[in-house]
Amino acid sequence: MRMRCLAITLLSIGWAGASGATQPAACLTKSDDGGLQDTGGSVVADKKEFYDGSKVFPVRTFSDQAATGKTAEFCLRYEIENPGPEHIRNLYWGLAGILVKDFRPGAPDRQSRSKQILSTKDPEVQPTTINAFVNEAATPKVWVVESQHAQAEGAQFNDVVAVDRDQLIPADVRQLLAASSLPQRHAVLALSVSQDKPIHPVRETVSGQGFSLEVVSRVVADGNSVSFQTNVSLSGDSAKEARISMPALQALEGAKAAGALEYYAAYLDAVAKRGTAEPITDFTSDTFSTTVDRRALLQGTVFLSEHVITVQANDNEYCYRFQSYTPFAVDFDLDQCRR
Question: Choosing a second label site near 128 at 20 to 30 A (CA), which of 43, 213, 225, 262?
C-alpha cells in the first residue's frame, strides 16, 4: 500500500499506572487536581462572551501544555467553564471535542479533558472557535500543536500516518458515506498491520459534573488475526444514574470484514440502529471488541477513527468525541451526537 504521509495523529493520553503527582498538569483533568487556574506555569486562560438577544453570556477557557520527556511528545489539556449567572444552550467546542446541551454556571459543570500528541513542532497559542445557542461564536486563545509525522527512527510503535481519503478509500465507499450524511472532514488516520511493531494503545479521560469517562483502545495483530478492543468506563457520583450511548463502538462487535462496500454498508446500518436504541443504564465498564482476518481489512489497514459517546446525567446531556482503532475508515463528529 502506497500512502502519502500528511500528518501524524493525536494519541490520547497513555500514562497507565502513573500517579497524578508524577505527571505534568497538562496530562491530568479536573478530577485529578480540581481544574486549571488562571495563572501558573504555562496555563493560558481567556474569557470571551456569547450574545443571545440582549443578554451577554461569558465563558472562560483554560489550556495547558507540557512535554512528556519522550521524543516529540506533548500533553495538551483543555477546560471550559461558565462563570456567568445564566445557562448557555448547545455549547459546541470542536477542537476539544465537547458538546453540552445545557452548559450551567459554576465550577462543578466545568468540562475538562487532556490528550497526548506527537509532533515535531512546539505548541503555539492560537484562537479556537466555540459555538453556542443557534450559531453564536466566541474565539478564545488556547494551546494548539500542529501535528505532523514525528515518529523517531527506531520508534517502538507502529507508525500512524494521515492519508488522503481519495488515495485509499474506494469511490463507492466514499459515495456511500456522502449519501449517509456523514461528511468526512479529515484525512484518514491509518496504520499498516504489516509492520512488525506493536500498535500504541490510545487512552483519554474526560471529566464533567460528577463523572469521568475513560476510553482505552488497543489493537493486537497475531499472524493473520487482528483484534480490536476498546474499553469504556464511567465513574463518579453522577455516573450512578447516568445513561450512555456509543453506537459506533457497539456496532463494531458484529464486524468480521471491512474490505468492500457491503461491509461498510452493514456497519453503517448497525450504527444507525444502535443510535436509535435506548441508552445503556447502570453502566460502569465494558469492552467492545471484534477480530478480523488481516486479509479481510481494506488493504491490510487499521484506522484510528473518531466517534462520539453521549452521556445523559444531571438532567443534562453531554457528548464527547474520542478516537479508537477500527477496521473502518469512518469518522463520526459531534454533529452525530444523539439528539
Answer: 213
